[in-house]
Specification:
Helix content is about 30%, strand content about 20%. By secondary structure, it is of the alpha/beta class. The strands form six sheets. Strands 2-15-17-16 form a four-stranded mixed sheet. Strands 4-5-3-14 form a four-stranded mixed sheet.
């Protein structure tokens, strides 16, 4: 297994240009493909997840070309050219890209074609039953090719009827609701969705609704329980769309500054490509830093952290609104005085790995005392971090990026399979090395 050893460090300063947001990139690609003309996408994330979406769209017959400063995606007006046949379906491999697999499942279920969707072994362990159940309510023809409730899937043509409200759970993954919302305009009819449990990760639904509006579909909602797609909704391509910098990726550098900026007068550590007007929920990570005493400065397309005036105190936080960035807070707990508790993080269990279990296991390697529950993790830091810990990353990009921050505690740390960061931030470790010393 490839390994990367990060040397002991104690300072973090400078600026980092963020890669494009994964959530925005893959949603934008699919919406552009479903639109009625063409969109040039600027600052698209170049990563494994977006590569899976691009490869899939091309297999479905979508024309995608490089152009000056971006990628031109030519929409199919809601009708994928390549529909396969009963004898030979279109075989689509989505890796471990949930932001591609879930929305494509819904869109293809309404497209009248023959498709097989599969991924890496971990993708086949990530639940999709709630989305499939919702699609079957309107007549979708979806079969499980392995374990019930999990990929891989076979999708066949079906008669779709959206005359009755579609009920879907919202307490496992917000991607299920996102997938439904993005696909239902393909019917051209009014469709109503009822969320029958507490909706988690609401900011990701806000990203979906915001982007759908940019493509001409305005969803009506009543609180977070009922959503209505108006009749005669059709995706219309904006000429150009700029993908924001990734707010989840910003969290690692903002945390680095919070841990290891030392001079409150001089420049701290800034991330370029996102600000407090972002449509991404994880931008609120900066607000959580402010709550625990970290100075934050906002400017146009930039957020900067400067040295705190005193040592961070342990904190207790409901993280439902920042599920991905909350992982970074788990590492910051190692640098706090006292115990930190992160709550309402059940969605960690069904991500690229079981992130609660993985985080607990790896935090213990650096000396932390950790208590984990179904939807929380409690972390008490050691007096001194254990040097030369070897961190397993579970093919999870966020585990690798999070644990790089441990080196700022003045201890070397070894990251197993560092290239797993290619899922969202292929050159993360090069950028990290530029700002630490």
């Amino acid at each position: 297994m490839e390994q990367l050893t990060l040397p002991a460090a104690s300072r973090a300063e400078g600026t980092v240009k963020l890669p494009g947001s994964k959530s925005i990139s893959n949603r934008t690609l699919l919406l552009a493909a479903l639109g009625n003309s063409g969109t040039v996408v600027h600052n698209l994330l170049e990563s494994d997840d977006t590569a899976r979406m691009l490869d899939t769209l091309k297999l479905l017959g979508i024309a995608i070309d490089s152009t000056s400063g971006g990628l031109l995606v030519k929409g199919c007006d809601g009708n994928f050219p390549n529909k396969g046949s009963a004898e030979k379906s279109v075989d689509l491999f989505l890796g471990n890209a949930g932001t591609a697999f879930r929305p494509l499942t819904a869109a293809l279920a309404l497209s009248g074609g023959h498709y097989t969707l599969s991924g890496v072994p971990r993708m086949h362990e990530r639940p999709i039953g709630d989305l499939v159940d919702a699609l079957r309510q309107i007549g979708a023809n979806i079969e499980y090719l392995g374990n019930e409730g999990f990929p891989p899937l076979k999708i066949s043509p079906a008669n779709i009827d959206v005359s009755k409200p579609i009920k879907i759970r919202g307490d496992v993954s917000s991607q299920f609701l996102t997938a439904l919302l993005m696909a239902l305009p393909l019917t051209g009819k009014q469709a109503d969705i009822e969320v029958v449990s507490e909706l988690i990760s609401k900011p990701y639904i806000e990203i979906t609704l915001n982007l759908m509006a940019k493509f001409g579909v305005h969803v009506l909602r009543k609180g977070w329980q009922r959503f209505t797609i108006p009749a005669n909704s059709h995706y219309q391509n904006p000429v150009i769309i700029d993908v924001e910098g990734d707010a989840s990726s910003a969290s690692y550098f903002l945390a680095a500054g919070a841990i290891a900026c030392h001079n409150p007068i001089q420049m701290g550590l800034g991330v370029v490509g996102v600000d407090n007007n972002s449509i991404q929920g994880d931008v609120k990570f900066a607000e959580e830093l402010q709550k625990i005493g970290i100075p934050i400065i906002y400017s146009s397309s930039m957020i900067m952290v400067t040295a705190p005036k005193q040592k961070i105190k342990g904190f207790d936080l409901d993280c439902n609104h920042i599920p991905d960035a909350a992982m970074t807070l788990a590492i910051m707990a190692l640098f706090a005085e006292g115990t930190t508790t992160l709550r309402n993080i059940a969605s960690w269990r069904v991500k690229e790995t079981d992130r609660i279990a993985a985080m607990a296991t790896e935090l213990r390697k650096v000396g932390a005392i950790v208590e984990e529950g179904a939807d929380y993790i409690k972390i008490t830091p050691p007096e001194k971090l254990t040097p030369n810990a070897v961190i397993d990353t579970y093919d999870d990009h966020r585990m690798a990026m999070c644990f790089s921050l441990v080196s700022l505690g003045g201890v070397p740390i070894t990251i197993n399979d560092p290239k797993c960061v290619a899922k969202t931030f292929p050159n993360y470790f090069e950028e990290f090395a530029k700002i630490v010393s």
